[in-house]
Write a sequence for this structure.
């Protein structure tokens, strides 16, 4: 039986042509031509002034924190339910992550949880657009402004999502995107930082090139910094994908609609939520089971796998995993974050690769219904 993969890209002749051109011609005086085009087109798509192509979204978050001057003795608030990449850069700059609870419906950080955790040491919040869904960013930005803290929007999973007509990634002081092979738009590995703030932009350009300003031909480093660049071959792939972004996002929404037709309203199943006024790009169609069904995520994943279906577990609360478990902040979060701890054990991501067919979505949905109700 052929396995149905959980994620994967949609590559056409356009991508092959652009990468072939880059590997052939993007050298010497043309070395930056695809990076420049990709960055300009990306900033235009998101609606920000600036975009910087990077090796990953992790590096975008790291650079954002560094450019904002976050460092030792500072606290940064992150949602408890997210991939570790949202929080790990907080440790890279020597600051302390503080894990906030999420909203029951959006599965994203709630403004109320954020506000309760702000102290005199808080420097920033990292708001994550989980699985393509968006938190109430208006409320989050309002709380952050009132308390004088920065907002970094981790839009790694959400390219194409919108809130009141404004594209995700553009809500905070800086935003980050991932182009990992599993993402809606891929460059294999890769990422992008976006911002409207010229100071952050210039500082990031300096920090991402070993403390060297763009155009410095004397190789004269004035600070110890980082090396975060994207190759022209990746940028060419990214540009080709970006020129097809509407059809990539539409396919994700179509896959979700296939699942919705089969699963919406079934007792005990919750699906991704679309906050009024937002457009969810549904990177990962996700189901959260009612506790009363008595099936946890690892068991469900195993039962699906026996039917040839790949899936992923809903992220574990960061405060529960070995990487953070020992921290005082994690202990407090475990006692406090009831919603994160009630969702995570019962959630899985369903197959959502961009080559998925309606027939496969029906097969997955049927398998899920049989597992839940006809075992
Ligand atoms: C929510 C979230 N943030 C950050 C990242 C990091 O992205 P990258 O793998 O490009 O560093 C990911 C990657 O999957 C993610 O899901």
């Amino acid at each position: 039986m052929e396995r149905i993969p959980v994620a994967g890209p949609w590559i056409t002749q356009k991508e092959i042509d652009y990468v072939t051109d880059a590997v052939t011609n993007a050298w010497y005086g043309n070395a930056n031509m695809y990076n420049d085009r990709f960055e300009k087109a990306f900033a235009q798509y998101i609606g920000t002034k600036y975009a910087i192509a990077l090796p990953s979204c992790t590096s975008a978050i790291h650079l954002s924190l560094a450019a904002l001057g976050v460092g030792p003795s500072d606290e940064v608030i992150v949602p408890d339910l997210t991939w570790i990449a949202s929080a790990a850069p907080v440790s890279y700059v020597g600051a302390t992550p503080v894990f906030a609870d999420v909203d029951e419906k959006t599965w994203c950080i709630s403004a109320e949880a954020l506000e309760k955790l702000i102290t005199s040491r808080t420097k920033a919040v990292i708001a994550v657009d989980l699985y393509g869904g968006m938190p109430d960013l208006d409320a989050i930005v309002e709380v952050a402004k009132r308390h004088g803290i920065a907002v970094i929007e981790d839009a790694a999973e959400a390219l194409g999502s919108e809130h009141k007509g404004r594209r995700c990634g553009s809500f905070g002081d800086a935003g980050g995107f991932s182009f990992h092979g599993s993402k809606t738009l891929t460059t294999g590995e890769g990422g992008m930082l976006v911002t409207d703030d010229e100071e952050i932009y210039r500082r990031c350009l300096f920090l991402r090139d070993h403390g060297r300003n763009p155009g410095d031909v004397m190789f004269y480093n004035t600070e110890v910094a980082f090396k975060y660049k994207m190759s022209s071959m990746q940028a060419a792939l990214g540009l080709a994908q970006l020129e097809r972004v509407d059809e990539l996002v539409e396919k994700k929404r179509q896959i979700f609609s296939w699942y919705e037709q089969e699963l919406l309203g079934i007792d005990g199943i919750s699906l991704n939520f679309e906050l009024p006024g937002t457009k969810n790009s549904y990177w990962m169609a996700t189901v959260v089971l009612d506790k009363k069904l008595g099936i946890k995520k690892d068991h469900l994943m195993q039962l699906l796998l026996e039917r040839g279906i790949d899936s992923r577990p809903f992220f574990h609360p960061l405060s529960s995993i070995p990487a953070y478990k020992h921290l005082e902040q994690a202990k407090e979060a475990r006692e406090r974050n009831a919603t994160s701890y009630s969702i995570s054990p019962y959630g899985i991501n369903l197959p959502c690769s961009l080559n998925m067919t309606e027939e496969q979505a029906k097969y997955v949905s049927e398998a899920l219904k049989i597992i839940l109700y006809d075992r």
Summary: The CA atoms of residues 164 and 281 lie 14 Å apart. The chain has a mean pLDDT of 97. DSSP finds 13 helices and 14 strands in the chain.
